[in-house]
Write a structure and sequence with these properties.
By secondary structure, the chain is an alpha/beta fold. It is built from 11 helices and 12 strands. Strand 8, helix 10 and strand 9 form a beta-alpha-beta unit. The structure holds adenosine monophosphate (AMP), zinc ion and fe (iii) ion (FE) (2 copies).
Length: 281
């Protein structure tokens, strides 16, 4: 049997692996196919694709867009997107700027709270265009301003905590359209994590192509529930570990193993989309 892991992060957002390290770990796990889904960027895809090609592993381009619908945050995965699509690059570039501004705001809030973190320390550690709260937390630990990442989130960075800053997000409906115009397929990420089932019909009406049924934080019962929802709405089924690097001394990559038949269905759907939209790359 061949397996895939279609939800992975690298240093191009808040993961700790380089694309090359990620592919090495995928190889170790015996995966036949991976997708890179860094937050609000496709920058790592070129290197990940090259590293995969060197070891004859299949690669699916991807991104994980931070979006919202009806006041709920929803992550929308874009698979098989053209990573050179200018409309996509321009729009995610705006959200990368939003992320960078938010780092400044969170550090300013920490400073007001008496935590002497320098914004340069966060940007030096993040060293990417799509920084996030994990980089702030890691910089705090590195500068010995807090004991652990968990403590940084619990005391300061979690929603509602004093250094939390809300993030401007694109609408989920726009994210679906943005992914489609870049030749890709839009998939709702980890629905069981956010408990946002009530927005699924709206997303389907907007053209959602798939739903992530298998995820590290989904129980078997949840996965079964989302498989039923996929069936009901005729959605593609995807899955992945959402690995961000080492977590408790072990990377999550490969802990969620998506049967390869689902990748074939994804590819077939992408071909149909390309056929239905002549003129798109
Ligand atoms: P951001 O995109 O900046 O809002 O950061 C979101 C990321 O922070 C998620 O992808 C998680 O990896 C991480 N995260 C969110 N909440 C926590 C938490 N309580 N503890 C550790 N990491 C978290
Ligand atoms: Zn993340
Ligand atoms: Fe996510
Ligand atoms: Fe993710």
């Amino acid at each position: 049997m061949k397996f895939a892991d279609l939800h992975l992060h690298t240093q191009f957002s808040d993961g700790t692996f380089t694309p090359e390290e990620l592919v090495l770990h995928a190889q170790k796990q015996g995966l036949a196919c991976i997708a890179l889904t860094d937050h609000d960027t496709v920058e790592g895809c070129v290197r990940a694709a090259a590293a995969c090609a060197r070891v004859q592993m299949e690669f699916v381009t991807g991104t994980e867009l931070t979006a919202e619908h009806a006041d709920t945050e929803v992550h929308v995965l874009g698979y098989c997107v053209d990573t050179h699509n200018q409309v996509l690059l321009d729009r995610i570039g705006q959200f990368q700027s939003v992320r960078q501004r938010r780092i400044h705001e969170m550090v300013a809030a920490l400073n007001r709270l008496g935590v002497p973190l320098k914004v340069e320390a966060v940007f030096a550690l993040a060293n990417c265009k799509s920084p996030g709260r994990p980089h702030v937390a890691r910089a705090m630990v590195k500068e010995k301003l807090i004991g652990s990442l968990d403590e940084a989130f619990e005391r300061f960075l979690k929603r509602g905590r004093p250094a939390w800053v809300p993030k401007t997000k694109m609408s989920a409906l726009e994210s679906v359209e943005l992914i489609h115009q870049a030749g890709g397929l839009a998939v709702m990420a980890h629905p069981g994590l956010n408990r946002t089932d009530e927005i699924i019909p709206d997303l389907v009406a907007a053209g959602l192509d798939g739903i992530e049924c298998f995820h590290t934080k989904h129980s078997t019962v949840m996965s079964e529930r989302y498989l039923e929802i996929a069936e009901k709405y005729g959605l593609l089924v995807t899955g992945g570990s959402d690995c961000h690097g080492y977590s408790k001394n072990k990377p999550l990559i490969g802990t969620v193993r998506l049967p390869y038949a689902y990748v074939e269905k994804l590819r077939a759907a992408q071909q149909r989309l390309a056929g239905a939209r002549p003129g798109q790359p």
